[in-house]
Amino acid sequence: MADQPLTILFMPESAYGPTNNCVGIGDVLRRRGHRVVFAAEASWQGKLAPLGFEEDLVDLAEPAGEGVEQDAGQFWKDFIRDTAPEFRKPTIQQLDSWIKPVWEELITGARYCEPRLREIIARVEPDVIVEDNVVCFPALMTAGVPFVRIVSCNPLEMKGPGVPPAFSGYPIDDRTGWPEFLAEYDRTHRALWADFNAWVVEQGAPPLPDLEFIHEGAANLYVYPEIADYTGARPLGESWHRLDSSVRESDDSFELPDELAGNGPLIYFSLGSLGSADVELMRRVIAGLARTPYRYVVSKGPLHAEIELADNMWGAEFVPQTKVIPMADLVITHGGNNTTTEALHFGKPMICLPLFWDQYDNAQRVHELGYGVRLDTYTFTDAELHGALDKLLSDSGPRERLAAAGVEIRRRDGLRRAADLIERAAR
Q1: Is the separation of the CB atoms in 153 and 224 below 8 Å?
Q2: 14 near 41, Cβ under 8 Å?
Q3: Does pLDDT of 157 surpass 60?
Q4: How far is the C-alpha of 133 from the C-alpha of 130, rounded, in Å?
Q5: Which DSSP letter does residue 250 get?
């Protein structure tokens, strides 16, 4: 029990990654005796309270209607499904057709829920506010208590002249396309940023940094292992603190199903709760994996009923990822920040099939450091997929380096480091 219990208000982005990150950190704080309240998006109703948290939720858009129940994060699942064709474009073309619309949706949500957030803060009376999101909510900045920002995205979101542009997926050792990408980001986002910044200031919050959609906090935490970070190329200020990982401890236990009994390599395949909504892509990958001698655990996602697995596979709508990855020899992932950092936490190589946002940056970083292989998500061949599997499973050098790195990442205990920093910020 903490000597002086705090009231800590978390506001994560509605997607599973940021919410699960906050759940992991919040669980440590709760077990230390603090009161932990989640101002999560309304579709998470009833899913956080069983974990020991208070729920004081917000709508980011007009509610669907009385009696209409949505899955957690349903808005973004629908958004990804409807905009999936954009993922086939080069990242520089996605700036106008996909990245900007995402910012527009996030900003619309921030504007909509501002009055409700102010009510929650007045009611909860937090000692510290923690946001894991990419957009500013002015109510969090004007509450009169310390504000802690968490970045559970690729750390290219903290920009600098020595690192590739965020969302580009460009390599760090080739600057050829950087100026053009940055200019296109400015062209497509300048007016949107200026309008949002004016509204943020109207709400009483400080002006936003140039072309940024969120402020820094009294403390700023970012989730990324040192072995993959860009620290040397992009130093950060003293308020920034790296969490080498943030792996929640609340997942259910997992036992390998009888149908996967055997001694061959075991592989975990997940495109995340959003990426797995692309059923055509899921089927394409599964068909390629079916023609290999390996065993697979598959996270099938929200449209699980439409996805049929091969005989060398077992899967479910949700699987306890943090319990499965330690059993696996390799991870096939979309490159979401949670899965990427969790794979490194457990010392596992990856095959990355990026779809959107920072997944391109994670996939490129894994590839250029030799921790895995980046494939083109929509044009890879079975031969490329099988070759990547065989290479990563047979090359003992990288596997041994990753295993050793995982031991060090786990020793650093990012969950408790995050809890310590939040407590320090509050006091």
Answers
A1: no
A2: yes
A3: yes
A4: 10
A5: -
The dihedral sign for the CA sequence 407, 237, 190, 173: negative
What residue type is 385 in one-letter code?
L
Please give the Cα distance from 423 to 82 (Å, whole number). 41
| Cα atoms in the 13 Å half-sphere on the side-chain side of 170 | 22
Query: How does DSSP assign 264-275, residue by residue?
Result: S-EEEEE-HHHH
Predicted confidence at residue 374, as pLDDT, reads 97
In the block, tokens 């499973």 appear at: 393
d(C-alpha 203, C-alpha 142), whole Å:
8
Report helix, strand or coil for 382.
helix
Q: Is 373 helix (H, G, I), strand (E, B) or coil?
A: strand
DSSP element (H, E) containing 9: strand 7-12
Q: What is the mean pLDDT of the chain?
A: 91
Residue type, 377: T
Taking a C-beta distance cutoff of 8 angstroms, is the pair 136, 200 a contact?
yes
CA dihedral 130, 299, 393, 377 (to 10 degrees): -80
- pTM, entire model: 0.91
Average pLDDT over residues 45-60: 92
Q: Which residues pair with 242 in a beta bridge?
A: 222
Highest mean pLDDT among 139-148, 242-251, 277-286: 139-148
Q: 205 with 139: CB under 8 angstroms? A: no
Residue 201, pLDDT > 80, answer yes
Provide the phi-psi class of 37: left if phi over 0, else alpha when psi is between -120 and 50, else beta: beta
Strand partners, 378: none
Predicted pLDDT at 285: 94
Number of other residues whose CB lies within 10 A of the CB of residue 123? 10
**Distance of alpha carbon 141 from alpha carbon 216, whole angstroms:** 10
DSSP string covering 62-116, please?
Answer: S---TT----TTHHHHHHHHHHGGGGGS-HHHHIIIIIHHHHHHHHHHHHHHHHH
The torsion defined by the Cα of 328, 333, 335 and 339, in degrees rounded to 10, comes to -40
Place of tokens 């729920």: 55
User: What span, in angstroms and rounded, lies between the C-alpha atoms of 339 and 134?
Assistant: 18
Over residues 383-416, the pLDDT tens digits come to 999 999 999 999 888 889 999 999 999 999 999 9
pLDDT more than 70, % of the chain: 95
CA distances from 265 to 95, 127, 171, 351, 390 (A): 39, 48, 30, 15, 10
